[in-house]
Model the fold of this input.
Amino acid sequence: MNLILLGAPGAGKGTQAEIICEQFSIPSISTGNIIRESVKNGTELGLKAKSYMDSGELVPDAVVIGIIKERLAQDDCQNGFILDGFPRTIPQAEALDQMGVVIDRVVSIEVADEKIAARMSGRRVCSKCGASYHLEYKKPAKDGVCDACGGELIQRKDDAPETVIERLRVYHEQTEPLKDYYEKAGKLRLVEGQEQVADTTALTLAALKD
Ligand code: AMP
Done:
């Protein structure tokens, strides 16, 4: 199954992607994580992407399309994948279509902007493996430590309040039109983001089955 998870930054799509990919035994592909890894490693891509990312802007389409093309060509994507954070613009969605990638379902996790800002302040990510946590909704077993790899949990720079406002603006302007794009293709399902992660997962799984 080839899936796309849409949603505003902080709507919880990364967390859902991590849960669902285990259930379906398919990789979850986060362009944000790939880019952050490149920034950390100081690669050419990382150097190009850092300033966009830090200010809450989107990295240019050509760069992310190149990343996704390479990633989807890897063997572990043969039986399906979940895209978390791609596509984020209409040209990115068109590029997927042009690559011949057939998307089975697109789930958009809907959370009001006001709730997002509050949620983002509690968000933490693993500095080593990128797994996501939340101080209230998805606590690690041990404070500040990643359950999966033992890495240190940190707050992302782009989760700072001013940057969150800009990321929401960019989401509404550039990413939200994708709902219409996939609605027209009959692939879109909307899921109301819930307070509890497990409740959102139940709704998301139901949206994949109908
Ligand atoms: P995320 O972790 O998905 O919220 O992504 C963090 C940042 O990486 C975004 O704010 C963008 O700067 C960049 N990014 C990730 N995915 C994309 C994409 N599909 N298109 C453009 N920029 C992206």
